[in-house]
Amino acid sequence: MSPLATAQTMYETHQCDLMADIADFLARGYVVSTPERFFLFRAVQAHRVEHWLSASEQADAWWLHLGIGPRGLSGVRWFMDQLPFPLPRVLLARGMRDMRVRSYDFDRFYQLST
Q1: Residue 9, pLDDT above cutoff 90
Q2: Which 8-state DSSP code applies to residue 79?
Q3: 99: helix, strand or coil
Q4: What pLDDT, on the 0 to 100 scale, is given for residue 106?
């Protein structure tokens, strides 16, 4: 199954709208799709992950909303290499059921992936 098809199945299982998220991330975030990977991510303020930033607001973290692809350090490194610029933190939640936000120091996260 392709990463995009995997994402669609995940969203349907949780009764969410993948196409709406893709549209939001195309307009105000980042979408990276290859035959092996699919990622939605955006710059945020670490204390307000759900908030979409306005042009006047300063981001201090990357929020990985969705990441599908090879697991392990090679997948983490590939994601880190897609980020257009560094920010102090990388935030993510593991899976759609456990939405607890995990926060990682950008430099440490990058070093661990090499």
Answers
A1: yes
A2: H
A3: coil
A4: 93
